[in-house]
Amino acid sequence: MTETTKPRRAQILDSASRLFSERGYHATSMRDLAGDLGMQGGSLYAHISGKEELLIEIVNVASRQFDEALFTLRDVQLPADEKLREAMHRHIRVVADNMDSATVFFHEWKHLSPEAYARVTGWRDSIDAFYRELITRGISEGTFRADLDPRMTAYLVLSAVNWAYTWYRPGGPLTPGDVADSFADMLLGGLRSEIGSTA
Amino acid sequence: MTETTKPRRAQILDSASRLFSERGYHATSMRDLAGDLGMQGGSLYAHISGKEELLIEIVNVASRQFDEALFTLRDVQLPADEKLREAMHRHIRVVADNMDSATVFFHEWKHLSPEAYARVTGWRDSIDAFYRELITRGISEGTFRADLDPRMTAYLVLSAVNWAYTWYRPGGPLTPGDVADSFADMLLGGLRSEIGSTA
DNA sequence: CCTACCGATCGGTAGG
DNA sequence: CCTACCGATCGGTAGG
C-alpha cells in the first residue's frame, strides 16, 4: 500500500533536489516541480503536505548522510592523520554522491522553519566538534603540530571538503577519492618544498 | 543634482545586501526592502529601475573588490609562498569587510540574467587562473613542492578563503589577518609534526 | 516619496 | 492525478 506511493515520493524529492539546487528554493514553484514530473501543480499534494516538507526532507536526508559517514568513524582506532584522511574521503564522497541535495543543504537551510533550522545548526556544530576533537587528539598524540589551533584547523578542513559542492563534477576525471587524497596530502604535508622556504 | 540621490541609492544597496544575504534574493520582496528603509514599495522605483538591478550591482561591486585586491598583486615581485600569503590576506579581507555582499555574491549569482551571469562566471575563472598561475610559478621557482597539481591546489586555497563567508564574524576576536595567517601557516607548512608522520 | 492600482503568479484546496 | 478555483502576494506603474 505504501509501496506504490513511496517511489513517487522519491521521484518528487529527486526533482525537488535538482530544481532547488539549480534555481533555489523560493525561485522554484510547485508548478515547475510538477511540470518536471509531468503532472499538474495540484496533483503534488496527493503525495506531500506542502513545499516546506520537501525542503525539510532534502536537508534531513543530506545531514543524515553526513552523520552516518562521520560518526561511525568516531571510535575507530587510527592515527590522527590517517583518520583525518579517511574522514575527508567520506565527507567528500557524501558531497559528490549528493551534489543536488548538498547544494540545497548549504544554500537553503536558512529558509527552514525555526525548529528545522535549529536541527541543522545543531548538526553543523556536531560536525565541527568531530573535526576539532580529531585535531585535538592528533596534537596530543604528537601526530599534528603542537601549535595548531583546533578550531581554525577544523575550519580549514571543512572549507576544503564542503566547498567541493561548488566545483566538483561527478563523472569527470576525478573521483571523490582522488580529491580527498589530493587535499589530504596538501593539508598534511604542506605546500612548501623542503628547499625553498623563505618565510 | 546627482549628489542627493546617490546616498539614497547607496542606502538601498546596503539594505538589499543585508536582506538578500539573510533571506535570499527571491525571498526578499521589494516591500520588505522598502519597509527596511522606512518607505513604501512603489517609492523604490524613483531610485532604481528594478529588483534585478540591485542584484547585479551588489554582485558587480563585490567582484570589483576581489578584482582590485588580487590583480594589483599580479606583477608584484615576491617569492610564491609570500605572495600566496598576501593574496589570502587580501582575499579574506574582502570577504570579511563585505560579508553581506560576499554572501549574496556566492549564493545568488545563479539568479542573474544570462549576460550578468556570464560576467560572474568569467570573473570566477580569472580568480581561479590567478591562483593557479601563482602556484605554477611557485613550483617552477622551487618554493612549492614539485608534485602539486596547480588546479587542485588553487581549489584548496579558494576553499579556505571563500568558505570564510559562512563562519567569520566581523567584530569577533579574529581579524581577517589572523585568519589569513593561520590558514597560510597551515597550508604552507602542513598539519603534520616532524616526528609523528605515519602515512 | 505616497496612494492606488495592474496583471501575473504564488502555495494550496475542493471535488471529483 | 486533473480541473477549477481560492486569497495572498509578487514586481512594477501611473499620477500626483
TrEMBL record, chains A, B:
Keywords: DNA-binding, Repressor, Transcription, Transcription regulation. Gene3D superfamilies: Homeodomain-like, Tetracycline Repressor, domain 2. GO terms for molecular function: DNA-binding transcription factor activity; transcription cis-regulatory region binding. Pfam families: TetR_C_24, TetR_N. Residues 29-48 bind DNA. Residues 6-66 form the HTH tetR-type domain. The keyword Coiled coil does not apply. The keyword Transmembrane helix does not apply. InterPro entries: Homeodomain-like_sf, HTH-type_TetR-like_transc_reg, HTH_TetR, KstR2_TetR_C, Tet_transcr_reg_TetR-rel_C_sf. This is Transcriptional regulator, TetR family. It comes from Deinococcus marmoris.
